[in-house]
Amino acid sequence: MNRLGGLPLFSRAYPALALVVAAVLLSPAYLAVSLPILALYIYLELRWDGSRATILMALFLAFSLPLLFKPVVGAWFSVLLALPVVALLDSNLRRYALRQEFSPGVKGHRPTRLCLSLALCLMAVGFVAWALGSWNLLASCAVVAGYVGGVAGWGLREASRMPIRADVMTHKAVAGQPATAAVKLRKLSRMSGQLRLSSPHPWLSIRPSWFVADGQSAEIELSFTPPFSGPTALASRVAFMDSWGLVQTDFELTVAEVFVIPRARYAEWLARRYLKMSRSGSRETMTSAAAAQRTTKRGVEFYGVRTYQPGDSAKTIDWKHTLKLHQMVVREFLDSGVESAILLVNLCVSDEEDGDKLAYSLIMTALTLSRESIPSVVAAYDHRGVVLNSRLLDPSQALLQALSLTKQIRISLSPQRYLQAPDVARLRANIHRLNESKRSAGVRLAELLQLEYAALGKAAQSNPATQALTAALSVGRARANVLIVSRHNHDAEALAFARHSLTERGYRVMTPEAGKRGVN
Fold first, then answer.
1. From CA 472, how far away is CA 120, in angstroms rounded?
2. Is the dihedral of CA 201, 203, 209, 214 positive or negative?
3. String of DSSP letters for 314-383
4. What is the mean pLDDT of the chain?
5. What is the pLDDT of residues 306-325, one digit of tens each?
6. What is the pTM assigned to this prediction?
């Protein structure tokens, strides 16, 4: 961070020297005036450097010094003594401008509060000088007003053109995934000034958000998590203030172009890449020991065949299918104790953003099961009924089925709003505690809660989620894990009831995070 301009030693020492000369050479009456002004000036310069008080002191000196020396040098020559004070005012304005707080607002140019305050002060002094007939004071006021007006006019002229531009580049990002980008800003204006950048989106941050544009270029960093339906052009609200803090210009600046890749497309690419590598026999090495043990299953129940991979035992080679398919394949057997999974999918979403999140969650969940070699039953439904109930599929078939289901995701335009799902476990616990209280009020309240619980159960039984889950449980194994991929809309209460029921029966129920509403 660089400061705008320096403070010449002469302009800072000149008021003190002028006041000392006035105290020594002029009459004793002027001594009583100049010494307090000198003491106040030194105090402000030492303790309040760069504050608004130093600006007011510079204005006061520009008006008072010509009045003090008027008896010595004359009315019109004394006005020249205000010119060095203008240099002091210039430096004080530059220093104070660095401390001003400002933020982007409505597009366009506008004077700052400091500029308006200076204008009102000069108008008031000019009116008093005219009323008193002090042409000396009026001329000093005109000198200061000419400086302030000239600086403000120059700032407005330079700000009328775009002060900076960004080297816009296109960046690829997966929807909902954090990304960063470095952007170079180039200065176009001849005037230095301050820049404040603010993001118009909660998912976009800009660092640094404030800097002094006194060089030819600067660099900012963008951090963003683009939504599926977000803008492709990332723009920042920018406020530019000139070096003296008199004119502020607000505008929008395009800093980057973003090509948003849908989550579903990215997940589909990962899944098809994995399937292609699996078919070619070059499946990626699994890091976990459990996954490595599942690569070649040696149980008692025949599971299926797959392509031979280095390290497979020769005893598992299926020679009949090897000759038939003209490539070496091995037999896999599934131990009766090995867990399977039930993938329960709600294909109903509210908008395209929800659909993208659901498809991503579905594919990534099936891909994880496939990488872990876990057989799965896929059950899908929407708000109208059950769409699919599969048999126990091997991991690759389950992944292919998941890819196919993404094409059947339906957007429901129903205006119905869905509240947060009930906590069934807490409801049951409250009923149990109230029944044990033996108090009449508690028993009656328990009866009301029991009616609520019964209504939830009845509604859950008629929901397509329960029907699909019941059919899947009849196909899956006893130790199956239940994975629910849903945006929790029309099925929220049914899933809450089913989760509680399955947990009590010993099932493990999991919900992938990306499948929950509000999660990117």
1. 80
2. negative
3. GGGB-HHHHHHHTS-EEEEEE-TTS--EEEEEE-EESSHHHHHHHHHHHHHHHHHHHHTT--EEEEEE-S
4. 82
5. 666 666 677 778 887 777 77
6. 0.68
